[in-house]
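R.M. (postdoc): so does anyone remember the format we settled on? I'll just put the structure tokens first.
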């Protein structure tokens, strides 16, 4: 996996081939969106919403669409179910008042973090977006595609996750 970093206001140029299968996209694109969160931004706000249109053939457009929604259904569904279980288990031990509310919130956040982490461990999406301080990081499952995006946009594609 390789990642490319671009400025938020940069109009990204993509190679004219499908991001997922390298086939001819025939002018088609897949919409890739994410709230582009980093770990800590869950605590403060839900990140910055980013949408990109990336060349993709009809078949892969559908696959990418499912990957997009799958992530949110699994993570948010997991957060509700797992968060509810945690709160229920902890309920008899919780103090009353505002502290109880704070702890419940923290437990739901833990559930969200665990589900997000599990998702990234299990699923490798075609494209992954993450907002950094002043740049958008786009991770591509296809290394060659990432390298070409780097060349076309005068940005360096780097191995991702970054090697120590
Ligand atoms: Zn394709």
């Amino acid at each position: 996996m390789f990642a490319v970093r671009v400025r938020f206001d940069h109009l990204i140029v993509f190679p004219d081939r499908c991001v997922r299968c390298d086939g001819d996209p025939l002018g088609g694109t897949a919409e890739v969106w994410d709230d582009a969160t980093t770990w800590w931004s869950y605590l403060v706000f839900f990140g910055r919403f980013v949408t990109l249109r990336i060349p993709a053939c009809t078949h892969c457009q559908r696959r990418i669409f499912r990957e997009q929604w799958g992530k949110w259904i699994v993570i948010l569904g997991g957060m509700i179910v797992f968060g509810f279980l945690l709160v229920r288990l902890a309920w008899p031990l919780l103090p009353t008042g505002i502290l109880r509310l704070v702890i419940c919130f923290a437990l739901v956040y833990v559930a969200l973090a665990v589900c997000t982490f599990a998702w990234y461990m299990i699923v490798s999406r075609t494209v992954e977006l993450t907002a950094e301080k002043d740049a958008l990081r786009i991770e591509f499952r296809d290394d060659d595609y990432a390298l070409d995006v780097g060349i076309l946009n005068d940005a360096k594609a780097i191995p991702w996750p970054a090697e120590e």
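R.M.: ...and that's the designed sequence above, right after the tokens. Also worth knowing: The mean pLDDT is 88. Strands lie at 2-7, 29-34, 50-55, 127-131, 135-140, 157-159.
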